[in-house]
Write a structure and sequence with these properties.
The protein has 14 helices and 16 strands. With 473 residues, it is of the alpha/beta class. Bound molecules: zinc ion.
Length: 473
């Protein structure tokens, strides 16, 4: 990817959940940015709410890279979890097989979404050694204790507990929702670090007996391995702030004695479908692949970029129709601008594209304000359209606009049309071959008949210098 010189090095401000305000973005080490985003628990297909987080962080990484930052983007794969074990039992398969299958599906989805900025996917089960080491250090430092079903974190021992979610130890009671309902815990909000396995469950040996990791510990074990005990950005959906991200801080800062674990906590807003939370029971649950059967990835990426990443998005037919219109506008403009030619007869106008780029960047530098940035892009489209309509856009101006659009496409991935391969049916290919044969035999009448047959079926033949081309008519 082409990297630009940073024009406004200290302008970028990002909102961090920890401080509840925007802060100047200054990575810990020069231009190196270590970024971690919570990956999927691989027990089912991902939905468009997940897609929102993954698309937005893809845009953020690509923007930072355009600005000359050197980003290392790490994601975990939760491939051992109660949800996986339960689903595998329902499906009469092994947890390992189920997890591998859905990991494959997840990666396929990311490929179709053009999310290609992740440098490393780290499976929990491949970091058991690191996980055991962290649990061991937490026990040694007195932040953890053992009871009948596992090793638990004692949240009352960590004085900063609750600083991310603004909860107290007492308010942490509802954190028992995912996995940890043991009655002999010291505090209701204590969470499991290492769970002793039941006989039929997957397990790994540890100094405390056979078991498997709790959910929160895998993230800090993985980030410690690749980034050390502190790093730049942690991302994820808003609903992970508590208890998940709060637990990560409690674990890593207790282990290392260093704070903060993460300099900037970025959380994405919720996605609702027709005004309601997505739920299979409401019939408004849309997986990524269901969406892509009906609409394009361009449309989804535009839809996500049209809202600020922290704001809610409501997915509806109207919102999709609006995106379709906007994509059509972009396509129409791109076609027109490519046909702008130099002219010797006429002095044409060269719009100040740099000024639009500057406005675009200012919007992005304000906590990645993509809706404001896209408004600037549409302003430029209007300006360009008006000039083209009066045959007044200079060739140099058109080139500058096109270069800007290319940069936008590298960041957002919805500007250029997908090159759709036309699928030519087998019967047309057979007819085409017959026609070729007749032509070689100089049987012009038969060759024409074959051509007519092809045309009747909705295709058209072009005889070019490079050979015969066939297109849908
Ligand atoms: Zn996580």
């Amino acid at each position: 990817m082409k990297k630009n010189v940073i024009q406004y090095p200290n302008m970028l401000k990002v909102y961090t959940t920890l401080l509840r305000k925007k802060e100047s973005f200054k990575p810990r080490k020069g231009r190196k940015v270590n970024l971690f985003v919570c990956g999927p628990t691989v027990y089912d297909y991902s939905h468009i709410g997940h897609a929102r987080t993954y698309i937005i962080f893809d845009v953020i990484v690509k923007y930072l890279e355009e600005k000359g930052y050197d980003v290392f983007y790490l994601q975990n794969i939760t491939d051992i979890d109660d949800k996986i074990i339960n689903r595998a039992a329902e499906r009469k398969t092994t947890p390992e097989k189920l997890a591998r299958d859905f990991e494959k599906e997840y990666l396929k989805d990311m490929k179709s979404l053009k999310v290609d900025s992740v440098d490393k996917y780290a499976r929990a089960t491949e970091h058991i050694k690191e996980i055991i080491s962290q649990v061991g250090r937490l026990l040694k430092r007195g932040f953890a204790y053992e009871i009948e079903d596992g090793i638990y974190y004692d949240i009352s021992k960590f004085k900063d507990y609750g600083k991310l979610s603004k909860r107290t130890v007492l308010q942490a009671e509802d954190s028992i929702s995912r996995i940890d309902e043991s009655k002999s815990k010291k505090n209701k909000g204590d969470f499991c670090l290492w769970k002793f396995s039941k006989p039929e469950e997957p397990s790994w040996p540890s100094p405390w007996g056979k078991g498997r990791p709790g959910w929160h510990i895998e993230d800090t074990a993985i980030t410690e391995k690749y980034f050390g005990s502190q790093y730049d950005i942690h991302g994820g959906a808003k609903d992970l702030i508590f208890p998940h991200h709060e637990a990560e801080i409690a674990q890593m800062e207790a282990v290392s004695g260093k704070k903060p674990l993460v300099k900037y906590w970025l959380h994405t807003g919720f996605l609702t479908v027709r005004g309601r939370k997505m739920a299979k029971s409401l019939g408004n649950f849309i997986t990524i692949r269901e969406f892509l059967e009906k609409d394009s990835v361009r449309l989804l990426r535009l839809l996500m970029a049209k809202a600020h990443y922290r704001s809610p998005i409501d997915y509806s037919e109207e919102a999709v129709a609006q995106c379709r219109k906007e994509l059509a506008r972009i396509d129409e403009f791109a076609d027109k601008i490519k046909s702008v030619r130099t002219s010797k007869q006429k002095e044409k106008t060269e719009p100040d594209v740099a000024q639009y780029e500057e406005r675009f960047e200012k919007a992005m530098e304000d906590d990645f304000n993509t809706p404001k940035a896209l408004a600037v892009v549409f302003d430029l489209l209007n300006k360009g359209n008006a000039l083209i309509a009066g045959d007044d856009l200079s060739y140099a101006g058109a080139k500058n606009i096109l270069n800007f659009l290319k940069k936008l496409d590298r960041i957002f991935g919805f500007i250029s049309k997908e090159k759709t391969k036309e699928i030519i049916p087998e019967e047309i290919i057979v007819l085409l071959k017959e026609r070729e044969k007749y032509r070689k035999e100089k049987n012009w009448q038969k060759a024409d008949e074959a051509r007519e047959e092809i045309e009747k079926k909705g295709f058209r033949i072009e005889d070019t210098k490079e050979g015969v081309k066939i297109k849908k008519s």
